[in-house]
Amino acid sequence: MDYDLVILRYGEIGLKSSKVRSRFEKKLVKNIRASIDCEVDRNQGRIYLFPKDFEECLSKLNKIFGIVSYSPAISTYSNFEDIKSTLSDYVDGLVELGDIDSKTKFAIKCRRVGKHDFSSQQMAAFCGSVVVEKLGCPVDLTNPELTIYVEIRDDDAFIYHEKIEGPGGLPLGTQGKVISLLSSGIDSPVATYLMMKRGCEVVALHFDGAPFTQPKAVENVEKIIEKLQEYASGVPIKTRIIKYGDYLQKCKDDAPEKLTCVLCKSGMYKLAEKLAEDMGALAIVDGSSVGQVASQTLSNILATRYGVEMPILSPLIGLDKIEIERIADEIGTFEISKIDDGGCSAVPRYPETKADIERVREAQESMNQEKVIEETYANN
Ligand SMILES: Nc1ncnc2c1ncn2[C@@H]1O[C@H](COP(=O)(O)OP(=O)(O)OP(=O)(O)O)[C@@H](O)[C@H]1O
Question: What residues does ATP bind to (predicted)?
């Protein structure tokens, strides 16, 4: 099929005030242009793309947040004669694709914006008769096997038959910056993705626990970031890696063994908070989910956040593992996260599962956590 353009639809952006909407639309267009070579026209709540390479354009649009659906289309003028000849060519293309034949139950849906000397129903009936005349196939408005859309906007008309689902969400970069704690596990890549989907620019922060962890962990994180970059058109993910082995050693040496994991997580939040202040980020993101593993009890989640002032957002907090895995699979990070990274040898035999804030505070003091955090930050 020789398409001329792609029509984009956006959902939530359309609900905003006209000023905000215009800002979001502009950002969306900028993000699209960053990875797709195309001309863009914005008009009456729609974005029209005229790409140089259709295949490439269609493969990238389903990874650009803010787009609810999109349709490759053919354009013509909004009069009976032009619509008839363009629709006739379009139907030839559909026959070639095997999408319609003389037995296909079909419907025409017509939408109109502007003043015309015909109604939408009249145009739909006219287009229906063009197709019937050509192929003799039956019209079925209730259960069509194929719907052909005729969208008329003032002097222009667009014909298409597909509405491809986009990723939804808000345009990346419209909602401020976050520091996302990214491990090579299944959860944090999904948490990062969900915040990107809500329009947040991401700085991915990974803690390299060597010598307690293996180089494979950093390698896997780098592969995950590469995968997530596919969704970051226009606002690439920035990466920071903090060497965390010395901090972990201090936890083991100067605090109760049982609290190593709690102090590890608490240190991550505190370092993320420092980085956020330096990079102008407004929140920290992590992949916590209540009760998912023994270390993620509600009391542990709360105790690890003690002394951190910046909001910590956990978009997976109420999701089941199976729901998280499904998203990880859809976005392509699951396969990478499943690769064994060797784990962390700093984990004690019996890690704390019911951390008490008072005991955590004492442990933070006994290891002089604030000073160690300062040193760790300065050395990275
Ligand atoms: N090495 C690390 N670097 C950066 N963030 C980390 C690291 N380890 C853990 N985190 C953050 O802490 C969260 C909770 O980690 P924890 O190990 O308790 O759970 P998890 O279920 O293994 O998480 P994940 O599947 O994301 O690794 C992670 O989702 C992630 O956001």
Answer: 181-182, 206-207, 265, 287, 296
